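Human: I wish I could look at a protein chain and see how it folds. This is the protein in question:
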Amino acid sequence: MDDDDRVLQAIQPIYTDPTTRQLANGLPPRLLLGWVFAESSGVYNHVERTGEAGYFQIDPDGQRLLHATVDQVIRSKQNSLQYGLRHVQACKAWLQGELERTHVALDPRDDGLSERLTKLVHTVGAPSVGMLLRSVARATQEPLTWDTLTAHWRKNASRLNSGTLRNPERMIANVDRVMVNGARLAPRSMPPSSTQTTPAP
């Protein structure tokens, strides 16, 4: 089984298992597919030396927020997926709150922007994303696009007091790869079709 097939199989329960489907509510499959592909290649029990674990590579801070241990996250494929979905939902919820707090509006024409920012929360950490959004809000009142955010980030990286924001190219490329691979895999990810038996004449 190659990485693509492993990733597709990893998220299949969002279509077939009621609990998992509920946890994935509102999360586009392309985001989940791209995230799992980038972070673990679909290996449910993958653990980094720094403590990130599971399909979605939940970091130690994320594990604490979920009241989970590494062993719990990687105990099974189901655990790895369900804890990962909770983590993504937590990143998304934090982002929505921070957008309101910083009075930053997203440009509705920028498809996938909310997904990119949700992944960015995971990649650089919530405090750094908050710092970046506040910096952008001071610079412009226009609705935010990914191009606007990344251009501002590149221009001001040295002034932003955050270690995870000092290397914008690497972090931006990580998020972009998630979206590219998610879009590539999404057409192959779908609920199992119901089999209909045609009565014999």
Remarks:
- The chain has one domain: 3-188.
- The CA atoms of residues 112 and 193 lie 27 Å apart.
- The domain at 3-188 is CATH 1.10.530.10 (Lysozyme).
